[in-house]
Write a structure and sequence with these properties.
single chain, alpha+beta, 4 domains, about 15% helix, about 20% strand
Length: about 400
Amino acid sequence: MKAKKIKKYIPLVTEKFPLNAPDDEGDLEDNYFARALVGFQCDGYKVYEAVLNFEFKIWYEQEPAITNNHFDELETAGNELVNWFQTLYEQPLEGEQAWQSENLEYNFKLESKINSSKKRVLFADQYASGHLDWKDFDQIEVNSRAGMDGLEDSEKVVQTFIPSLLKYSIMPHPRLWQMEYSLTDFGKINASSTSIMNLLLAEYGLNYSNDWFVLPYEMQLNTLCEIKGICVTDVFGLNFHIQPTIEDPEMNWQEFAFFHQTERDNATQNKSMFYMVPAVGKMQESEDIEKVNFIRDEMSNLVWAIEQVVPPAAGKGRLTKQVTPSLADFEPADDESKIRYVSGNTVPKNWIPFIPVHKKNANPNGFKEIKLQRARMPQGAVPISKLLNENNRFSL
């Protein structure tokens, strides 16, 4: 607004869209933050929402202190704020929220066009990890024309490679008369009966190392790829077409596969599909802004949600204080009694109980489904974290 020469309207915008003061009196950092900014700076996100809902325009057109010749400058400033926010932050559209607060997980899917009447759907439901990868998706093939307009047609690519042997450091030589380093002692591999990968690595290095080749195939991000086959040309000029192992009718190779998207309907019939996820390999992550641990208490038949880190107004997560409320002063009837019984106990304020309750809608199979419903201890505190406040019931 300073660049638009409408600096004098900043107090009016601050008064209309103020910053909210924190409610937690024990958070000193938030209180200092509020004293420094509340009343002096406006809430930028409130202004952003007001511009999108045209409430900002209605406000400055009806404000008597704002003259008509500054309406264009205020509209331009609001549009620039929206463009800056949408460029820096990505917000989900209405109805496209992937977060399922009831189950504490993410559910989303992707669609890819096969032909004019078929499409392939990749599901990533019950996703609760921190790094998205190809193995988080399952696939199904759908015979439907619905939603095909926005999908691009598949592209067929033919490339030529010169294969190279698959090698790793200090791998044994395939020829017996060649000298090799004895840095790898295959006899000392500590493999249990379930360590299949360790045994396969030793078997590959000792017997089949010169039978494996590497064919580099570069893929673009957000691409679903299917290998139709490989045509091998030998030194005599003869061509041999090699199909994927999943198409071999005499072998059940499809029951064991690496780097394949699992079929949702039939997990034993994988197709040679691989999805290149548009995710970065390494990320720089800040400290937790919010952290809640769910602890199962079998003796009490409930679940405790322990708030460890909560998001303050200052932006940096703060540790909660585990303050246990004190019981009322106990006055025994007999001062000389050596045994005293306590009928109840208390827990720290950041311990929020969840009790099991039955769902209203019955399961078709006759089983009673259970939810965890947020409760409150006597003299207990209200949860501070956004995770526990957005939904008071969680599914099991």
